[in-house]
């Protein structure tokens, strides 16, 4: 964005949404930064980087006054921005609030110095705004270095150890601070042998990363293996009620805090997809979580205990077991038994980050337990950063969902333990593989701060910071991204049924790929119909896990929303949707229209040639070509599959291969 966008910038590394031009409106203006706290040093560093001139002695005449003072009376991390007497003021109670206020001024652009700038208070909705990395120190033989990572290797680790040069991690920390992220999980939830030792002899690595994040107000967390007392501690058991195990965890936590006094805590995936857990000892997940929680409690640490627990060795012939039910069945009997520094981390849907799922019923059910909502910024099931899919409209829908019915609190208001998401970043020059996937990371941070923000406005903000204020660029990127989630949904698995992806990689169509597998993800298509009967009356009973009115809404074919029809019901192909179309015709139409929509996106992106930097344009063009190929593949697999199963021809008489 600096200079002529047609020049091919040497892509060492793209600046994401903080190119130098994003602070051009600050250059040459005067600034005063007042108050105490190490993060104010960071603010000063930012102001000087932006080319601002520091005012000495009080600085009351400065263009921008940033102040951390207890008089500000903002919530922790919050700030107030106002304009009076020719000065823009940011006042915050804490230095972290001042840092967030600084980045707010960056986002405002030139309007930050408009005399019409209204006074506004900004306070985060959630104290915990976390990003989890699924990075391994070593390269895993199947999953690579970053599990479900689509942007290259880890920015932390290379050659089986911490990178010597952590300057990129520092730039990352700055980017995260600018969108309000304050916690980072450093390693994969599937903890392999090498990574388990981060807790012991690898602690120096964690300490060095914590040092890099600290000036940006970010605390680090580690994924810990439940079997660590055995695998790294040399004990004979990891039984959470065994006194030696209890002592081992207490010592391990104490050691961590001696090195890293502001360490955040542990993230644990237990008894899930082969990870060890308390079930091996006949204990439940409250016993398991609490042993770690007690070890962390004296140090103000937190256990993020994941609710993603289900039987991944299911017999596909067994129609009574329903993976969607599993988290609720495991965890709701334990409500009230978790130590107060346990946060139950729940994926937004009951299955696994599919493009369309109902909201997890575990979230409203856990009344006595702090719950964190887990989202996936990495696009495992939404095109793997080869497809341009802007996820914020979907997240906003999830965050707005009223789990107890209209008029009740939203999901964002229901979760007390904060918001967590899996990062989409790697060592790719664009950080996120697809340059447009940067918008998802940006939007995640902004929505974790304030779930009421408008996804379109967030996108405009990201576009302006990243590409400047060329209206054609804004319009072009908006037309590629605005409806992109719904477009992706249209050409992939229909009406909430989910999966239909290639087993293992999870990329591209394979309609029956998981149908006869042990993973519990089935669509049950036969010659007459498709979908999973999860009703109480005749199916697995999953619909009954919701509080009213949702249990009734989902139970009945009369009221279930069309987009979730096949998640809750098995229906004949001729079942008529609310829009008057049959299910089979809907499948044909959405897949053909969805692939056509991608053709239009290719053309829309082509219009941006010469308007966005050449490297961004070229990467986007290559990836849109792949998205186009893949969307057609999806269209043809799904249409042909259902044509062959049902024998019902397309009413539009189009060629279905
Ligand atoms: C998905 C994903 C795994 C991941 C798991 C999890 O199943 O495919 O790679 O480990 O989610 O969230 O734990």
TrEMBL record:
Span of domain Glycosyl hydrolase family 67 C-terminal: 432-654
InterPro entries: A-glucoronidase_C_sf, GH, Glyco_hydro_67_C, Glyco_hydro_67_cat
UniProt xrefs under Pfam families: Glyco_hydro_67C, Glyco_hydro_67M
Catalytic activity, EC: 3.2.1.139
Descriptive protein name: Alpha-glucuronidase
Transmembrane region(s): none
Any one GO MF annotation of this record: xylan alpha-1,2-glucuronosidase activity
Enzyme class: hydrolase
Key words, A-Z: Glycosidase, Hydrolase
Residue ranges of domain Glycosyl hydrolase family 67 catalytic in the record: 120-431
Example GO biological process: xylan catabolic process
Gene Ontology CC annotation, any one: extracellular region
């Amino acid at each position: 964005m600096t200079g002529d966008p047609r020049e091919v910038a040497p892509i060492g590394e793209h600046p994401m949404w903080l190119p130098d031009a994003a602070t051009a409106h600050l250059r040459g203006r005067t600034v005063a930064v007042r108050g105490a706290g190490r993060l104010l040093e960071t603010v000063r560093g930012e102001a000087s980087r932006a080319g601002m001139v520091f005012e000495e002695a009080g600085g009351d005449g400065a263009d921008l006054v940033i102040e951390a003072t207890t008089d500000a009376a903002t919530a922790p991390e919050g700030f107030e921005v106002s304009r009076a007497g020719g000065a823009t003021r940011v006042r915050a109670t804490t230095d972290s609030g001042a840092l967030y206020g600084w980045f707010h001024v960056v986002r405002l652009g030139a309007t930050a110095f408009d005399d019409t700038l209204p006074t506004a208070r900004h306070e985060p909705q959630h104290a915990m705004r976390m990003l989890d990395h699924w990075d391994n120190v070593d390269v895993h033989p199947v999953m690579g270095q970053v599990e479900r990572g689509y942007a290259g290797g880890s920015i932390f680790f290379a050659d089986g150890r911490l990178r010597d040069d952590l300057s990129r991690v520092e730039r990352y920390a700055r980017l995260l601070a600018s969108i309000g992220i304050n916690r980072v999980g450093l390693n994969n939830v599937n903890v392999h042998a090498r990574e388990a030792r981060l807790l012991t002899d690898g602690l120096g690595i964690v300490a060095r990363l914590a040092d890099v994040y600290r000036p940006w107000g970010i605390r680090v967390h580690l994924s810990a293996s439940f079997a660590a007392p055995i695998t790294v501690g040399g004990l004979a058991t990891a039984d959470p009620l065994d006194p030696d195990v209890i002592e081992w965890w207490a010592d391990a936590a104490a050691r961590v805090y001696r090195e890293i006094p502001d360490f955040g805590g542990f993230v644990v995936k237990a008894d899930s997809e082969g990870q060890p857990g308390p079930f091996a000892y006949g204990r439940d997940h409250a016993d398991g979580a609490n042993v770690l929680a007690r070890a962390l409690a004296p140090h103000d640490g937190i256990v993020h205990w994941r609710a993603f627990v289900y039987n991944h060795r299911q017999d596909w012939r067994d129609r009574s077991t329903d993976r969607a039910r599993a988290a609720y069945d495991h965890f709701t009997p334990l409500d009230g038994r978790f130590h107060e520094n346990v946060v139950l981390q729940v994926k937004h849907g009951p299955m696994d980050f599919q493009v369309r799922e109902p909201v997890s019923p575990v979230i409203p059910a856990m009344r006595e337990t702090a719950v964190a909502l887990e989202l996936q910024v990495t696009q495992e099931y939404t095109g793997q950063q080869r497809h341009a899919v802007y996820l914020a409209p979907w997240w906003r829908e999830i965050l707005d969902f009223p789990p107890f019915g209209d008029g009740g609190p939203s999901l964002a208001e229901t979760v007390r333990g904060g918001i967590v998401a899996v990062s989409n970043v790697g060592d790719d020059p664009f950080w996120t593989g697809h340059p447009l996937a940067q918008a998802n990371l940006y939007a995640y941070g902004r929505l974790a701060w304030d779930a009421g923000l408008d996804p379109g406005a967030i996108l405009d903000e990201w576009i302006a910071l990243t590409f400047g204020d060329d209206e054609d660029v804004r319009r072009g990127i908006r037309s590629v991204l605005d409806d992109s989630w719904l477009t992706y949904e249209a050409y992939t698995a229909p009406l909430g049924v989910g999966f239909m992806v290639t087993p293992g990689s999870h990329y591209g169509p394979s309609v029956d790929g998981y149908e006869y597998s042990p993973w519990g993800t089935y669509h049950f298509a036969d010659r007459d119909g498709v979908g999973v009967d999860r009703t109480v009356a005749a199916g697995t009973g999953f619909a009954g896990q919701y509080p009213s009115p949702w249990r009734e809404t989902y139970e009945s074919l009369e009221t279930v929303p069309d987009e979730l029809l096949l998640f809750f019901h098995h229906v004949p192909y001729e079942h008529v949707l609310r829009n008057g179309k049959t299910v089979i015709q809907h499948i044909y139409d959405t897949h053909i229209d969805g692939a056509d929509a991608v053709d239009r996106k290719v053309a829309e992106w082509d219009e941006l040639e010469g308007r966005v930097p050449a490297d961004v344009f070229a990467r986007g063009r290559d990836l849109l070509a792949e998205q186009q190929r893949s969307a057609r593949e999806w269209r043809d697999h799904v249409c042909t599959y259902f044509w062959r199963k049902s024998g019902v021809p397309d009413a539009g008489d189009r060629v279905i291969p």
